Amino acid sequence: MKIGIVGRPQVGKTTVFNTLAQSNAEIGGYTSRGQINLSTANIPDERLEQLAETFESPKMTPATIDYVDVAGVTKSDVEQGELDAGMLAELRTVDALAHVVRLFENEAVPHVDGTLDAERDIESIALEFALADLQIVEGRLTRLRKQYQNQKLPEQQSEIRLLETCQQTLEKSEPLRALALSTNEEKLIRGYGFLTQKPLLLVCNIGETQLDAADEIFKRFIKYKAEPQTAVIVLAAQLEMELSQLDETDTEIFMEEMGLHESALERFIQASYQLLGLLTFFTTGPVETRAWTLPEGQTAVDAAGRVHTDFEKGFIRSETINWADLVACGSYPQARSKGLLRAEGKTYQVQEGDVLLILANPTN
Question: CA-to-CA distance for 102 and 117, rounded, in angstroms?
Answer without folding.
Answer: 8
